[in-house]
Amino acid sequence: MKMTETLILGASALAAGYADGSCVVADGGILIGGEFANALHGFGTPPSQPRSEKARAFYRTLETRGLLTSGLPVHLPGVQPVLAKIYKESGARMLLSARLTELSRVKEHFRAVFFTTAGFLTLNAARVLDTTSGVGMRALGYDVGACTRTLACLLLSADPAAPLPVIKGAEVNSGLYPGLCAAHFPFTGSLTDAQEAVDAAVANLSPWRRAAVAHLPDVTPARAGFDAGGFLWRPSAYYNDPISAFDAGTALREGGMF
């Protein structure tokens, strides 16, 4: 079986900064850069000066497309097509809707088994870069450490000039359009209990009302990564925004840290 040089778990912003033609990028979902679609820090203001030239070009593209305004949050849904184009140009092989079912060390390499729309797929890789919130870490039996679990609730207002609502126990961030915001509620218990608590918290927030797609669970890792001889964990969602994560991926590639 052909050996893949680097298997990347997660079609993330960080992975987009790292990937090239020697990589296979696998993701259990269908979204590229989806880790920032509703992450706790996903609406953060990006740095003004990315470190690498590749990241600075990414930053300029977002500015040119009107997806980034100085001092305002990244317009997240518009970032994903830009990342998709970067992946296409990288030459990396993309495997979306590929859920990892097994990851193990076999002598000097790794063996990964995915469940895809075409059935099970087995890959051998010389090394693995896990950019998810810990899919590969857990598969190898490593402790991912503390994570912030949040439940995001999307809110809409008919008044685009309405000030952001103040909700006790929640972090509220502006969204892509005026009149749209997201409230992030940390939770530690069951998802059902958390959903009920969120529903109660946003029940009377006129002029704000809950959007049709209300509950978006998210896990944000509390630490930046882990290294175990050929396996590297760098969770993209740890970073404050897609640009910072992309910048970290390019630095990892250019610095030969892996």
How many E strands?
12
The amount of beta strand, in percent, is: 25-35%
Along the chain, the helix and strand elements come as EHEHHEEEEHEEEHEEEH
Calculate the terminal CA-CA distance, rounded to whole Å: 23 Å
Number of helix segments? 6
Oligomer: single chain
How would you classify the helix and strand content by structural class?
alpha/beta
Mean of all residue-level pLDDT scores: 84
Q: Rounded to an integer, what's the Rg over CA atoms?
A: 19 Å
- Major sheet characteristics: 8 strands, mixed
Helix content: 10-25%
List keywords for this structure.
6 helices, eight-stranded mixed beta sheet, alpha/beta, globular, 32% strand
Architecture overview:
The structure is a single chain. The chain has 258 residues and is of the alpha/beta class. The protein has 6 helices and 12 strands. It has helices at 13-18, 53-64, 76-90, 135-139, 191-201, 242-254; strands at residues 3-9, 23-26, 93-95, 99-106, 109-116, 119-130, 147-157, 171-174, 180-186, 208-221, 226-227, 231-233. The strands form 2 sheets. Strands 1, 2, 3, 4, 5, 6, 11 and 12 form an 8-stranded mixed β-sheet that branches. A 4-stranded antiparallel β-sheet has the order 8-9-7-10, with helices on one face. Strand 4 (99-106) and strand 5 (109-116) form a beta hairpin. It is globular and about 60 Å long. The two termini are 23 Å apart.
